[in-house]
Design a protein that fits this description.
Layout: E1 3-7, H1 8-13, H2 15-23, E2 27-32, E3 35-40, H3 71-78
Parallel strand pairs: 1-2
Antiparallel strand pairs: 2-3
C-alpha cells in the first residue's frame, strides 16, 4: 500500500475513514499548509506472550553435559593438532 497526503482540514472531516485505511496498512500523511506534519499508520500487533515450560519430558540432558571435552575434540575446536 502506498502513502496518501491529506490537508489537516480534510483529515479532520474524514478521520474515521482515514483510520480504517491506516489500520489496513496504508500510510496517511497529514499536512498543514502543504507541509507534512504527522503520519498515521497501522499499530503493530503485540507478539504473543510466551509461556515458560512445555518441554518437560521431551528433552534429555546427559549428566556429563558440561564435563570437559576429550582432548581430541577440544584440540579440533581450538584449531590445534592432537
Amino acid at each position: 500500500m502506498g502513502e496518501s497526503i491529506y490537508n489537516l482540514y480534510a483529515a479532520k472531516t474524514s478521520l474515521s475513514r482515514l483510520v480504517e485505511r491506516a489500520a489496513k496498512g496504508e500510510e496517511i500523511i497529514i499536512a498543514k499548509a502543504g507541509k507534512p506534519m504527522a503520519r498515521l499508520g497501522p499499530v503493530k500487533k503485540s507478539p504473543v506472550r510466551r509461556q515458560p515450560g512445555g518441554w518437560e519430558g521431551k528433552v534429555f540432558i546427559a549428566e556429563d553435559f558440561d564435563d570437559p571435552l576429550p582432548d581430541e575434540i577440544l584440540a579440533a575446536f581450538e584449531g590445534r593438532e592432537k
